[in-house]
Amino acid sequence: MEGTLPDHEDWRLRAVGTSGGDLGAMGSAAGGGKLPTAARERKLPDQREEHPGATLYITLIAAVAAIGGLLFGFDTGVIAGAMLFIVPDFHLGPAQQGLVVSAVTFGALFGALAAGTSSDTIGRRWTNIFAGLSFVAGAVFSAIAPNVDILIASRVLIGLAIGLTSVAAPMYIAELSPARSRGKLVSLFQLAITIGILVSYIVDRALAPEQAWRWMLGLAFIPGALLVLGMIPLPESPRWLLKAGAEKAAREALSLVRPLNEIEAELHEIREDLEHNQPAAWTELLMPGLRPALMVGVGLAVFQQVTGINTIIYYAPQIFQMAGLSSATIALAATIGIGVLNVLSTLIAIWLVDRVGRKPLLLIGLVGMTASLAVLGFAQRFAPAIGIDPHALAPITVGCIALYIVCFAFSLGPVVWLMISEIFPTRARARAAAVSTAANWMANFLVSLSFPVLLAAMGPSLSFLYAAMGVAAFIFIVGYVPETKGKSLEDISRQWRTATKGAVVGQ
Ligand code: BGC
């Protein structure tokens, strides 16, 4: 196999070119540093070579896999509006209401864990296809549910699909993407989530006059079917194929999404990485070799939730009404505005994540989120004492929430899903991503469950609690999270391996 490699050193040069200084340091440790400068310069244009067909195809692959994100957003968002009519139709008490709403989060927790095993055994592509089938079944059964038990069971099925897709879709996209554009391609998943949330707000509003909750839930059938049909002709991840020993299929898959001259070098790099990392059983995720990466994955996943995003996504109309936007129509319009901002600001991340990197986006976003939460808490808590006109509270609240959403949407929103898909070595990626994603759903569940109770107990000071989490997230990211911009998945894996004991690389 070595013989078919164009030249190991030759490839290193291209890698140095793609990833800039960070990788350069690592490249020299691996022997790349010995190359003469003239050769370096002669080869550099090589790596900039674009391949329009391959670029278009990988974008299409990412867009199809991201339909799972659309369903994730739609199915988590749509229930708020649908509940207005489900409750009287089925005569639901508070406990049953809670079950209908939280069944999705509960299912997602198990779906994420199941995705760890299924992405390793049947592959990334089939796991995405199963997610699509589960979305379709969940949509149909919830639309025709004759009673609340079937409705709850259908919502668990939808949750399973969301859990599967939230592990398998970003990972599938990351494993097929070239290092130079992996950030923006995986961020399409978050863009799809935000579009799904926005569409759910619009569908809820449009179908409310007819009280058509069955249609609200059933419409998810369409993207579900598109996900299944769209995934069928797509290639499997070359990394999973090599891990499964299917070398020829891996080469074929890679040849669809890379220029010809990059294929052998990348295959070599993946093979080398697989040799260095033993297959990871669940318990091995806690061994010293994988622990630091797992800590980063779980930490980011949890911070994405405990900084409070879903208190806004799930409860925005109530928050706006409490702030003085008394008419329900205006509160709903403000909520749709939040949905639009969420989509548009995700585009900022798509534009910047491969240029400025992951860490700057995370840190700048957290500063904005924390500041807006602190101002919101301060204004609501001390408005009368410092002479703020109570009428000014509504615009201050809307402004702070808008700033918070913008900052989340270009940072923790997309970057967390991206980093969970890229920081683990191929051998352990599915399981470690599954654990991190399950932690995300667990934190989501706890935050959305505790929000009404905490709000009743703490009042406006609750914002300070989420702001404090923002400060903790900032410190965690500065201290432990590596920069992965422009690095191949194997470079990232090698960095964890060579990191000296106790230190985290890439800072
Ligand atoms: C989070 C969801 C959240 C959404 C908002 C996602 O990245 O995982 O919990 O509702 O962003 O856009």
Topology of helices and strands:
Elements lengths: L7 H22 L7 H11 L4 H14 L1 H24 L3 H28 L2 H21 L3 H29 L5 H26 L5 H6 L2 H11 L6 H6 L3 H11 L2 H17 L14 H16 L2 H14 L5 H25 L5 H25 L10 H17 L2 H11 L3 H33 L3 H19 L8 H10 L9
The protein binds beta-D-glucopyranose (BGC).
The site of beta-D-glucopyranose has 11 residues, from helix 8 and helix 15.
Mean pLDDT: 87
Count of DSSP strands: 0
The parts where pLDDT drops under 50 for at least 5 residues are: 1-48, 500-507
Number of helices: 22
Strand proportion: under 5%
How is the main sheet built? none
Supply the helix-strand structural class.
mainly alpha
The helix content is over 70%
Spatial extent as radius of gyration: 23 Å
Q: What is the string of helix and strand elements?
A: HHHHHHHHHHHHHHHHHHHHHH
Small molecules held by this entry: beta-D-glucopyranose
Quick one: overall form?
A: globular
For the termini, the CA-CA separation is: 35 Å
